[in-house]
Amino acid sequence: MNLDYMLKFKDSIPLCNCGGIIKPDVILYNEPLVDKDYVNNLLPMLSMYVSVEAVPNCKNVEILDTKITKQPAGKDAKEWEEVWTLGACGKKVEVPLSLKDEDKRIQTFITSDKMKVLK
Question: What does the DSSP assignment read for 62-109?
Fold first, then answer.
């Protein structure tokens, strides 16, 4: 895209000819690295893990916060680390995750020895 084309969109969201949104090749603040379907599929697994390892028999687990602790390096980076803070029966549990993108299929590894119950 040339500058004249981009300037047409100075007051709106720039779109490419294919209909997609033109955006910078960086991860913006509050932009998820993974989609909602991934989170919805991961939460039951984390809930089970937390109820066995951290807060026994807890059935009510919710996501309170997520943080990237090791950024993907460069636009072609395929691995990063996150810490998810989960609420579990009145306690906060930090669950470290290592994530790897393998052809748009996210592999997730829980770092169990570093999981912490905060309160």
Answer: EEEEEEEEE---STT--EEEEEEEEEETTEEEEEEEEEEEETTEEEEE
> What's the CA gap between 21 and 53, in Å, rounded?
42
92: pLDDT strictly greater than 90: yes
- CB of 110 within 8 A of CB of 95? yes
Distance in angstroms (rounded) separating the CA atoms of residues 11 and 100: 36
Sign, CA dihedral 109-29-60-104, equals negative
The size of the chain, in residues, is 119
Is the Cβ–Cβ distance between 80 and 70 less than 8 Å?
A: yes
What is the H or E stretch that residue 3 is in?
Answer: helix 3-7
* H/E segment holding residue 45: helix 36-53
Domains of the chain, first to last:
30-117 (3.10.450)
pTM value is 0.63
In DSSP terms, 19 is beta-bridged to none
